[in-house]
Every structure is written in structure tokens, then in C-alpha cells.
Amino acid sequence: MKKSATESDEIDEQNPEKSDSETGASASEGTEADIQVEMDGDPVAKLEAEVERWKDTAARARADLENFRKRMAREKSDSIQYANSSLLQSLIPVIDNFEMGMKAAKEAEGEDSVIFQGMSMVQKQLSDFLEENHVQPIKAVGESFDPNLHEAVKQESSEIVPEGEVIYELRRGYKLRDRLLRAANVVVSTGPPDSNSRGVAEEG
Q1: Sign of the C-alpha dihedral, residues 46, 52, 55, 61?
Q2: Sign of dihedral through CA atoms 105, 109, 111, 113?
Q3: 143 CA to centre of own chain
Q4: CATH no. of 136-204
Q5: pLDDT tens for each residue of 117-136
Q6: What is the pTM of this model?
């Protein structure tokens, strides 16, 4: 049997709590949905942020790869340029001994002797060989002492050579391109002798 409008109104009046509850539930569901949308944020913005993140990752990867390529090229170049460094380093003591022999021949036979002339020709060949292989002797005498190139064996006072400069060389040093093969053994000036010490020495 169909209820009349009056009966329905009466039922609603008799159950006001139920009606309010349903209305509140609907409102609550709507609010939660709004909050969820706010929490999720704009999906387009999220995608754009994700794209930017991956772009940054890709840029970093490209930079790392480029640095790796440069390092490999540099290491390859170094390996070619300095491939003979061990051989050249072992040749230096031989050159030292040869130059000592030349000095002895000069003192014993003179510069015009056949022995000295022959040894001079060999020395020229050795010098050309070193130059062709980018080996240069290190400048020492008259230069400011450089711990990267020189090894100070001792120090001496000098009236002529300023303090900190090399007075003379005991053993020649060499470089291969810009790399040190052997430091030069040198004597370094401490400047003029102390006047007080000199006066005491003269009095004694």
C-alpha cells in the first residue's frame, strides 16, 4: 500500500537523527575526497617534476661520461708520451759515467786527442737522442733553488751568489717533457758569511 506524502513527512519528523546522519555522512565523504585531491596534488605538476628529475639525472650521466672519456684520453696520451720513461731513466747513469770518462780523457790526453774527439762525437749523438725523446737537462747553476727540481746536498756561504741560489751542480738532473726523471744534486748559497763570525775567525 503506497504511503501518502503526509505519512512520509511524519516518518521524517519521527526520525530526524537518521536524516541528519545521512547528510553528515555525505558531507564527510565529500570533505575527505577534497582532502585526498589536495594531498595528491596536480597530476600534471607531478609529471612535470618527474620529467625534470629525469632530465637532471640524464644530464649528470652525460657529464660523468664526458669526464670519463676525457680522463681515458688523457691517460692514453700520458701512456704514449711517457712510455719510455723507465728506459730513459736507466740510461741517465750511463750518461753520467760517459761524461766522467770524457773529463778524464780531456785531462789525460787533451781536447785535441783522438780519444777525446771520438768521445765528443758519441756525446753529441747521446744529446741528440735525448732531445728527440723530449728529455731535457735541468738548469741549476745560477737558478733559484727549486725543491721540485733540485736536491740540496749541502749549503755554502758565498760573497757572489745570492742566498737561495745554486752555486754549482754536483750531478745533473733531467726531465721528460714536464715530468721529473731525476733531480739535480746541487750546492745552495747561504749568502755572504756572517761579518761577526768572519771577524772572530780573523782575530783567532
Answers
A1: negative
A2: negative
A3: 27
A4: 2.30.22.10
A5: 999 999 999 999 999 999 99
A6: 0.59
